[in-house]
Amino acid sequence: MTIRYDEDAKNVLGGELISCSLDPVTGFFRNGCCETGPADTGIHTVCAVMTADFLEYSKAMGNDLSTPAPDYAFPGLKPGDRWCLCAPRWKEALDAGAAPHLVLEATHEETLAIVPLGILKDYAVKA
Fold first, then answer.
1. Residue 54: alpha-carbon gap to chain centroid
2. What is the model's pTM?
3. How far is residue 98's CA from residue 100's CA, in Å, rounded to a whole number?
């Protein structure tokens, strides 16, 4: 069962924010949802579907998401995993031609302050 930080959180389509992933458990609050709040300075709001290209890009940019970090209970990500990415990092990857697909229904509406809905829709996959 997911414990929500904000029961009223909306996705980029204006509907209820659904869970992004419980395996691996993602989200700034590690509750499976791409929720955000005042402590989330990275804006972890994009429910991205990992690709080998994006994982390589992220590692090259200094954020290795593919290597496990047992001290932080982080299993390491592989292509196909869903993960709450920072919206600015997703936009950066977009500009570099390495943006992964995303799940609109699980992407928090705060993302719209950084990326227009039309662009997000171009990278959408089914929930």
1. 12
2. 0.94
3. 6
Residue 90, phi then psi, degrees to nearest 5: -60, -45
Nearest to 104 by CA among 90, 93, 95: 90
Helix (H, G, I), strand (E, B) or coil at 89: helix
Is residue 98 within 8 Å of residue 54, measured between CB atoms?
yes
pLDDT digits (tens, 9 = 90+) for 103-117: 999 999 999 999 999
Determine the longest span between alpha carbons in the chain, in angstroms.
39
- Give strand pairing partners of 47: 84
Are the CB atoms for 20 and 83 separated by under 8 Å? yes
How many C-beta atoms surround the C-beta of residue 99 within 10 A? 25
pLDDT, tens digit, 9 for 90 and up, residues 77-86: 999 999 999 9
Decide: 99 and 39 in contact? Cβ < 8 Å. no
What is the rounded end-to-end Cα distance, in angstroms, of the chain?
A: 18
- Least Cα distance to 89 among 80, 102, 71 occurs for 102
